[in-house]
Amino acid sequence: MKVCVFGASSTQIDPVFKQAAFDLGKAIADKNWSLVFGAGASGIMGASADGAMSIQGEIIGIVPSFFKELHHALHEGCTEMIFTETMRERKGKMEDLADAFIICPGGIGTYEEFFEVYTLKQLQQLDKPICIFNVAGYYNPLIELLNKTVDLHFMSSSCLDLIMVSDSIDEMLAYIAGYVKGHTEVDFMLEAEEE
């Protein structure tokens, strides 16, 4: 099982988020699963890799080669490093390689990664578990927005069933382990209003 973890690279975040990411990476490795991530050495990315590395887990970093030119620090504990030409190619590689996705707290890059896999799942182009790791209620506003999107009929309520939201690592990993493919049908075309 390869689990892709999306999350922030920021060094300015509260330590509670980095500790949660460390614990997540360690828990993934403890199941003998592989961690797939964006190869960064800092923030959520670095902490999740540190956690997996603490018990000699497999860590697969995927990063555009131009990151080296921009002097972004890459995690030295990766057991495999995959370089891509573009950010778009990086996301595609992550999506193809991963068996599941966990969305940790992050910024616009993380939001983009989440919404891409979420959209692909809605369109039945991807059938893999997606979990939102809601550390310290970080994603509460996002969940409220998704519910409002349903309430105002911009999205079917069945779309909410495509993701799992939890602040528990054990719950997320159990959801991933028990995920059954083929149960992701979505009413993504809303019924027309009666005239």
UniProtKB/TrEMBL annotation:
SUPFAM superfamilies: MCP/YpsA-like
Annotated keywords: Cytokinin biosynthesis, Hydrolase
Annotated GO CC locations: cytosol
Pfam families hit by this protein: Lysine_decarbox
Record-listed E.C. numbers: 3.2.2.n1
Hydrolase in keyword set: yes
Recorded GO MF terms: hydrolase activity, hydrolyzing N-glycosyl compounds
Enzyme class: hydrolase
Alphabetized InterPro entries for the sequence: LOG, LOG_fam
Gene3D superfamilies documented for this protein: 3.40.50.450
BP GO terms, sorted: cytokinin biosynthetic process
Protein family membership: Belongs to the LOG family.
Record-given protein name: Cytokinin riboside 5'-monophosphate phosphoribohydrolase
